[in-house]
Amino acid sequence: MALKHLALIGASMVGLLATARADTLSDRVELCVACHGEHGVPQDKSIPVIDGQQQGYLYLQLRDYKNGGRRNEVMSPIAEALERADIIALAEYFSKRPASRSPRMR
Ligand code: HEC
Fold first, then answer.
1. What's the mean pLDDT when you consider all of the chain?
2. CB–CB of 62/89 below 8 Å?
3. 3-state DSSP assignment of residue 73
4. 77 assigned to some structural domain
5. pTM listed for this prediction
6. Residue 101 lies inside a defined structural domain of this protein
7. 34 in a structural domain
8. H helices within the chain, ranges in order?
9. What is the extent of the structural domain holding 89?
10. What tens digit of pLDDT does each residue of 10-58 get?
């Protein structure tokens, strides 16, 4: 999948996040797993595994995408659309999911 396509998918996710349609944690998780994978196996090699990563690490990455400390054309707009409370909840949620059964070499 080309990065351009990912960026387009990401942009449509931001639209979804910004509307009231994504107002529960599970609604948001659905958006994330569209790229990061339902069972910890991302849809594309360019997308990192987030399931089973350290909660603090996930929190810091999302916070940095949001505040510009880490830039990515797909993730930055997504994180910008999240509230701090969402970031905390998502980091906790994904850290508790089982790590991918087929971890990729990175
Ligand atoms: C359109 C596809 C897409 C969607 C939707 C998406 N991500 Fe991502 N995510 C990516 C890509 C691509 C990267 C790698 C970006 C980079 O290189 O910095 C990434 C990186 C990350 C990272 C950093 C992982 C690491 O190992 O450093 C976290 C954390 C993350 N995403 C969480 C989320 C969460 C939570 C959501 C839902 C709110 C989400 N993502 C939605 C594509 C997506």
1. 87
2. no
3. coil
4. yes
5. 0.88
6. no
7. yes
8. 3-18, 25-36, 55-67, 75-80, 84-96
9. 3-96
10. 887 777 776 656 678 988 999 999 999 988 889 898 999 999 999 999 9
CATH code for position 45: 1.10.760.10
The three-state secondary structure class of 90 is: helix
Residue among 75, 82, 86 to mutate when testing ligand 1 (max atoms within 8 A of CB):
75
Read off the pLDDT band of 7 (50, 70, 90): confident
> How confident is the model over 63-85, as pLDDT tens digits?
999 999 999 999 999 999 999 99
The reply to whether 12 falls in a domain is: yes
Nearest CA to ligand 1 atom 27: 61
- 36 CA → ligand 1 middle, Å: 7
* Total domains present in the chain: 1
